[in-house]
Design goal:
The structure is a single chain. The chain has one domain. The chain has two helices and no strands. With 88 residues, it is mainly alpha-helical. Helix 1 packs antiparallel against helix 2.
Length: 88
């Protein structure tokens, strides 16, 4: 494996990582923003009020997107294993 192939592999791994983490992170960010706005409007500054809804939303997002995430990870892993004989 030469340097450009290693760079392409690293870039692809980073893109897959961003792609499969996006649904969970976006749901946490959106719920966190909504809860933060609600806390600012009502002046309730309790930490668990902000923490629990974000965790619940992130678990729900992960449970909904888990088959898709697993498929993407398996496809990437299979492609890596397929390329091993070519790079020896």
């Amino acid at each position: 494996m030469d340097v450009p192939e290693a760079i392409d592999l690293g870039r692809e791994a980073m893109m897959i990582t961003l792609l499969i983490s996006a649904p969970v992170l976006l749901s946490g960010m959106i719920v966190g923003l909504a809860v933060g706005l609600l806390q600012a409007l009502t002046q309730i500054q309790e930490q668990t009020v902000a923490f629990v809804p974000k965790i619940v939303a992130m678990v729900l997002a992960l449970s909904v997107t888990l088959p898709w995430v697993a498929t993407r990870m398996l496809e990437f892993s299979a492609e890596l294993f397929r390329q091993i004989p070519e790079n020896l």
